[in-house]
Structures are given as structure tokens and as C-alpha cells.
Design goal:
single chain, 360 residues, alpha/beta, Arginase, Chain A, two-stranded antiparallel sheet, 36% helix, globular
Length: 360
């Protein structure tokens, strides 16, 4: 079989988000989720012979189906609100950074209302200090969602697999919150769009180094979208720290539709691929009719953001395992931050997945 040339959906607007830095334990540190990720992946996929497709604009319907409207409004307006304030002049900060978090520890069950100042209001939606919002953030975030939706359109139209070059990533974005360098949940948007297009049950398999707490939360009570993740064990001190454990399996109608496979630090190809195989078999056995892959390649051994040790060949085999389900597949870019190897890791996965599908 000839190698399948997958459509690679991208948007130049995804370059516009510039995090500038992250604030980690109170210190401004150099960001790793940079715009160069887009060009590195684009160059590699083009060289590999994949078809480049520019994303088209979509309405907000699918975004509103998985996210609270308040989050969408905040993300769209936060940078303008910040620029109108005194923050750059007073402290030299031109990115939105939350100042406080109105958690139950603060509110203690009392009635609350949104804060007037954006630096206080940001904590209503942000759950960390490292996911900053700048002037180009919303255009990039919205374009990333359009990449996911355009790739979904292609699969609905008959492509066996389409890849969405989403940047910033999305799987840590919850129904009403952003964090973990994620703002809108592109994989959840794709999954919801597949359901709306008539696929009865959608499986989401997340191979990012970190559990997609946002995707898990969005579908935790639902049986029509399964979520399975293989990731470094949060109990070892890794993001998202407080969720992502094996005993989290869904709730209510969604009981049994969530599956977490946490792995110890230093895990390499063998054990990692066994977990990917389990998830591939699971979504097939559970009657899924379409697949979304949250393709984080930060489980690779050179990546600065995790302690897993997966190789480029491991990603190719993971692609073959998930492509072997035979399910129409939307592959959504998540993490992956080592620029010298990033493109090769993505194309390796696409090669493996494409080797198991036939051209339309």
C-alpha cells in the first residue's frame, strides 16, 4: 500500500500567540509553547509529502457545546481589558496574569460576583499562573479550534484521517477554565463535532505526556464520548498533579467511559506502547465509530516537559496501533516542545497511522 498523504490543516494565525514567558513558582521563566512549533511541524509534514490545507472559519456552536460562554467571552476580551489598565506602566507586565483564585478556600460558600479588575477576574477562569494571555492569544486560540473543526470536516467528508496542527494546544482546557498552556479544548471540539455529524460514539485517545484533565472533565459524565489517556503518573509530581489517576473512570452516565493509564518516570517504548494498545483495543471494543487522537509528542525522550523516554519509532508504532482500529480519525496536536525533534516525531506518528489506512 502506498503511504497515505494525510491532510495537514493549519492556520497562519496560530503563530500570533506569544506567551513571552511563563510565571512558575512566582518566577518568570522562558516559555516552551512557542510559535516556532508551527513552522517546525509544517516544514516536516510538507517534506514528508502530506497535503497542506488552510483552516476555514467556523461558527462558535461546537465551542459553546463544550465550553462555558463566560470562558469564551473572557478569552476574547481579556487582553484588551489588560491593555486598558495600568499593568504595563506600573509593573511592566503586558500579559494577563491572574492575581487571585476565588476557590472554595477563599469564598467559603459565600455568594460571589465577578471581580471588576481583570487581574482579579482572571482567576475566575485561569487555574495556573503559567498560561498567559497576550494581544495575539485569542486569534491563535480561535484559529486552532478552526484547525480542529476543518480537519473534522475532512473526515466527515470521507478522509480516513486528517491532522490538525493546533497551536496553542488544548487538552488541559476544562469546560470553564484554562491552564497548562491550553485555552480552548481542540480535541473536545473535534469530538463534539463528530458526534454532531452523526457518529454514534467517539473515542478520544490521548498520548500526550500529561493527562488531558480538560478533556476528561468535559466528557466525564457522558457515555457517548470515551476518553482514554496514557501519561506520566501525576502522583509522581507531574501536571496536572491532582487528577489523572487510574481509579478515575467517569461518573453517572459516563461511568466506565474514562480510562487513565499512568506510567512511572523513565517509561520507554515497550510499556508505553502496551498502554497505547490497550486504549486502541478499548475504543474499538466499546463500539466507537470515530476516533480523536490527542497527539502530544512530549513523551519523547528529549522533551524538556516530561520524564518519559518514547522514541521516534515508538510514535510510529503508536500511529499504527491507533490507525489499526480502522476508525475515521481526527489527529489533534497537543504538546511537544523540543524543536530539533518535534517535526520528525509528528511525521513519524502520521506515517504509522497512515500506513494502516487506505486513501479515499
Amino acid at each position: 500500500m502506498d503511504q497515505y498523504a494525510a491532510p495537514v490543516v493549519w492556520s497562519p494565525a496560530t503563530r500570533s500567540h506569544d506567551p513571552k514567558h511563563e510565571v512558575w513558582v512566582g518566577v518568570a521563566t522562558e516559555g516552551t509553547e512557542v510559535s516556532a512549533r508551527v513552522d517546525t511541524i509544517l516544514d516536516s509534514t510538507t517534506s514528508a509529502g502530506h497535503r497542506i490545507v488552510e483552516a476555514t472559519s467556523h461558527p462558535d456552536d461546537m465551542l459553546r457545546a463544550v465550553h462555558d460562554p463566560g470562558l469564551l467571552e473572557f478569552l476574547a476580551t481579556a487582553s484588551d481589558r489588560w491593555q486598558e489598565g495600568p499593568y504595563d506602566e506600573l509593573v511592566g507586565q503586558d500579559r494577563v496574569v491572574p492575581y487571585l483564585f476565588p476557590t472554595p478556600a477563599m469564598t467559603a460558600g459565600m455568594p460571589t460576583r465577578p471581580a471588576v479588575s481583570v487581574h482579579a477576574d482572571a482567576g475566575r477562569f485561569a487555574y495556573d499562573t503559567m498560561t498567559l494571555i497576550g494581544p495575539g492569544t485569542w486569534p491563535a486560540v480561535r484559529a486552532a479550534a478552526d484547525c480542529a473543526l476543518t480537519a473534522t470536516d475532512l473526515v466527515v467528508g470521507g478522509e480516513p484521517m486528517a491532522y490538525a496542527l493546533c497551536r496553542p494546544p488544548g487538552h488541559h482546557a476544562t469546560p470553564a477554565g484554562f491552564g497548562g498552556s491550553c485555552y480552548l479544548n481542540n480535541a473536545a471540539v473535534a469530538g463534539q463535532a463528530l458526534r454532531a455529524a452523526g457518529f454514534d460514539r467517539v473515542g478520544i485517545v490521548d498520548v500526550d505526556a500529561h493527562q488531558g484533565n480538560g478533556t476528561a472533565a468535559i466528557f466525564y459524565d457522558r457515555a457517548d464520548v470515551l476518553y482514554g489517556s496514557v501519561h506520566v503518573d501525576p502522583a509522581a509530581g507531574w501536571f496536572p498533579h491532582v487528577v489523572g489517576h487510574a481509579d478515575e473512570t467517569g461518573r453517572g452516565a459516563g461511568t466506565g467511559a474514562t480510562r487513565n493509564l499512568p506510567l512511572p518516570e523513565g517509561t520507554g517504548d515497550g510499556t508505553w506502547l502496551d498502554a497505547v494498545r490497550q486504549l486502541a483495543d478499548w475504543v474499538a471494543a466499546e463500539g466507537c465509530t470515530a476516533l480523536v487522537v490527542s497527539l502530544g509528542v512530549d513523551a519523547a525522550k528529549d522533551d524538556p516537559e516530561s520524564p518519559l523516554m518514547v522514541t521516534v519509532d515508538g510514535y510510529s508504532e503508536a500511529g499504527a496501533l491507533l490507525g489499526g482500529t480502522g476508525l475515521p480519525s481526527v489527529v489533534v496536536q497537543e504538546g511537544g516542545y523540543h524543536l530539533p525533534t518535534l517535526g520528525a516525531l509528528v511525521t513519524s506518528y502520521l506515517s504509522g497511522h497512515g500506513s494502516r489506512v487506505a486513501s479515499p
